[in-house]
Fold each of these.
Amino acid sequence: MENTLSVAVLGTGTMGAAMARNLLSAGHDVRVWNRTRARAEPLAERGAYVTGEPADAVRGADVVLTSLLDGPSVMDAMRAAASDLGEGAVWVQTSTVGPDALAPMAAFATERRVLLIDAPVLGTKQPAEQGQLQILAAGPLAARPRAEQVFDAIGRRTVWLGEDASAGAASKLKLVFNGWVLTVINGTAESLALAKGLGVDPQDFLDALEGTALDSAYLRMKSEAILSGDYTPSFTVSNVLKDARLIGEAAQTSGVRLDLLPAGAERLARAQAQGHGGKDAAASYLASFED
């Protein structure tokens, strides 16, 4: 296939595995690594080469895509891969890491002579599986042709935000976006909890929203999870809580006072303490009722 890339995917959780599958469907040569190898093994059936070490995955790669929990886990994987990174390879980091994590990433990229693209993605499990993510990207022009081949496979739209990944434009925008996501999740959870407490049929609430400017597809999706009791994760309580902490740190650094976010983070922390950390963030609803 013309323009086929060799792509190493480090991290095959919900998002990384979906991106790897879409890269394979686009005809690229994909090598994958995950800390828990069993989570990567199903990708072998789709044609991926599953490796036991990050260095094995990145050997000969045109593009290295990282999809891991946070900045430290991304850097751990890349340092483990350092000896086999090819000079001039493009490193596409898609995780929500916060702007403070980018300085060590940029320093590492310079040291290893690879091209860093900061590219956090907007979307959860379903759009990831459908190749419909929105990518927020910042990085050098020289890296973009290869990066865009990857983005074409995993996303529906790419928004470029400058040539300097280390400036953090993409990661900062992702935190702003996720701040709104957290607000909608907790707002939906509390509204439905209040409805239950007042003896209001939640469907009446949803029917009243229909056709108004206050309605949203995301609210509907989280409401469905709550009302069905199906908390199969697309964005877990623990991951949202991690992002809330990053948002709080960034706000404090920039001198911005946030009031809703700390309250929402406290609510999520309570849900996690109650044993719901691995459930979808809609399980914020359960924090209204349990001790």
Amino acid sequence: MAKNPGESQPIDAYLASLEDPAAKKTLGALRMQLRKLLPGATETISYRMPTFKVDGNAVAGFAFFKTHCGYYPFSGSVVPPLKAQLAGYTTSKSGITFPPDKPLPAKLVKTLVQARLAEIAASGKKPSATKKKAAAKKALITDRVTDSAVKEATGRDWKGWMRALDTAKAGELNHKQLVAHLAREVESTWWQQSIAVAYEQARGKRVVGETAATGFQVGVVRTLPMGAEELWELIATQAERWLGAGATLILKPGEDYEVPKRRGSPGVRGEVRVVKSGQRLRMTWQPDGWKKPATLQLTLMPKARGVAVNVHMEKLPDAKAREAMREHWSGVLEGLAKE
């Protein structure tokens, strides 16, 4: 790795400190490509490597380690689905390594970047506090995902999609219908959702973090160091560990559940709606003081080393509740990961 690249050292200094000429040339070119793919991104040093951030979210990073270079999307969900395109490379869930004299193909870098951007756009991750002004400006998906990225993935840039959807009278469709319409042309569900949200934002049918169909929503994902069967058993038989102290739960559609009020936390009640053993649980969620229930869904996705848990909530009453639920479920998953 570069010599003593301190956390605040800029990328220029990092590259200048590299002694391997091939690595310096390859990573310098990679940096230029990332600049084109991520105009307006913040260039910084994070985890001792050059990093590109958009609205406070790390999108791409790279580094040199003695004999090889590495590319990192700062996500464990970007690399695995691209297994076929990454044949021949050494990969892990979090990155790709390659020889200094054999740069990653430009097309592959674009795919990695657009996959990470689509993931961020779909998750609605909260920008860092120091980026609030920039986040307000970049809140629209059309500002966060470049024209080149959407065109590379779907065949049209943002203006092209706006025109095509206007012609198809997409403004008369609800969110579900709009996504179904897009599915005729776009295979990726991530891009279907991203384009649908971008169109609704552009035509005033949606505010940031809210959809016409599902209201305010939020998602939290975490990979836990246990098997899917073990986690499902915990969910089914140890409700107190993820719902709260004193919680009662029977995993059967139509069954009511309750979490008693305790110091610092309101009581919660709801009804189990959908149970797919080992895979998915859907239920209502209504804390004390909420006029209407929200929807809570847990989805389990087995991974090579553990199980990824996707906690998704819809029909939240407002933006304040959305951020409270993001913090709540992040804490719950963090606690489970440490046990």
Amino acid sequence: MQLITGHQPVPDMCRGGVVAIGNFDGLHRGHQTLLAVAEAESVKLGRPWGVLSFEPHPRSFFRPDEPVFRLTPEALKARLLAALGASFMAVLPFDRDLSELSPEDFVIRHLVEGLQAAHVVMGYDFHFGKGRKGSPAIMAELGQKLGFGVTIVEQVTDEGDQHSPFSSSAIRQALRHGHVTAAARDLGYHWTVLGEVVKGDQRGRTIGFPTLNIVLEKGADPVRGIYAVRVRDADVQGAPIWAGAGYFGDRPTFDTGRTFLEVYLIGFEGDLYGHQVFVEFVDLIRPDKRFSSIDELVTQMKADCAAALKRLEAEDPITAFPLGRLQAEGRI
């Protein structure tokens, strides 16, 4: 997949295709339906298909003091889109200039002159241009005026479900409350982070539980606690999948005042410093808590690892959806 960032020129191979436009945070099942529409249109037209998205998240630009809990930061989003078969991902810098463009100027500059889109696919609730004045109806009008096709995808829910459509906001809230399996059902895959393994303070080694310390993007905010996780080395094609117990929290027993993602890999011996790894959050084992002694913490950690392994052994991977199937096969 071709990644086009910033103001890079658009390669010829990415011009004249079908463009799905949106933030696509999470690439959840609603997004996957929209992307499937784009792919089907590309087959019909015999053109490539891809995505036009934005960095940073527009809310981060307008409210810089309020970090956004990103479900899929740019690097992970690119991996998922490539797994779904996208030919390109164009990422526009969301800055003052972009936010001040009228809907028509935005379309002319980035969809017509930049990507030379033959067809645009967007969701029923996506808005663009200054003041979010660009609507699906306006996109359809501009397409007719400027010579490209437009498909608007209506809200997507589970078949027969009269509840809310799939939503990135709802998935964030589910993760904040520890509803990991509910989030996975809406995502169509286990919520995953992609991050670099860095040296920590080596505290885990002193108590018999050496952990991977993984850097997360600012704003990540799942519930603090212990999780059953699966881990893969993102730098190695076909890498083994390791079972683990993951910790996200502030280490209340040690009063560190910092937030960590640490993973103990069950039965693993090796060194992954500097590697990028995927961590799949399969289920919440228990919420975070303070312990009165190190011995009490170690006893609980042994029980947590046993519970995580049991949960992972009993878990049926989400294979009914494209990303769930690819994730279960270790192909993302």
Amino acid sequence: MNNFSPEWLDLREAADRRARSREIANAVSARFALRDELRIVDLGSGTGANLRATASLLPSRQAWTLVDNDPELSEAAKVKLSRWADASERNGETLHLKKGDREITVTFATADLANCQTALLDDAPHLVTASAFFDLVSEDFIRKLAKAVMNSGAAFYAALTYNGLHKWTPHRPADNQMIAAFHRHQMQDKGFGPAVGPLAASQLADQFRLNGYLVLEGESPWQLERGDRMLIDELVRGHAVAVTETGAVDAKTVVSWINVSRAAALVGHTDTFAVPA
């Protein structure tokens, strides 16, 4: 299963927050506007960025369960969430946070995400959420998760699911070849079976509709410019490594592609909100 460094997650957090679909965020907020409290399960929670971005949309009392397979990331999440909050108290593995007028309880679960979709929903959450996660999983994982969410009666909110759109500035002739090879790498097994990669957003929409949910989708692209230089450079490096692992592009082309100085990049994502009909 892919493990992401805290440094990479920190680097992308600001771009993720800017990119989120305001239309979908407003729909999430409206859905729960009359509730006083909410139980949320966050899949592939990393350093807690999804909680930090989503908490302001939700009611004043929130109980989050953050689920990740990497204990190091969960420890980083505890530190970052405590710093983010206006006030924090740690009681064993549970955080009690205050942020503005929100009172947020956070518990942490280390789990093999590939094999525990149903168990994660045993506490009957009102909302199941994840950010930048579903391109890693298989069609079978999404099918089982949608069924489990439906059986629990929860709403579902996936932010920043990569959708395959990629544009580099300046454009170079090898860009399309590199992107195609990158997608080939994306669809390899990441620990969940053959990954859906850039098809993830459409798979999510299809499976939740098959389970009788109403589905809203909104675009949430990264629009990276000169101020995002470190993130652009890291994207270039990451793409080159992934493409090299596929063997689909010759080394000379990869090296030449890396050496182009990119002033901007657009990376497509889709936000998905699904609710019981």
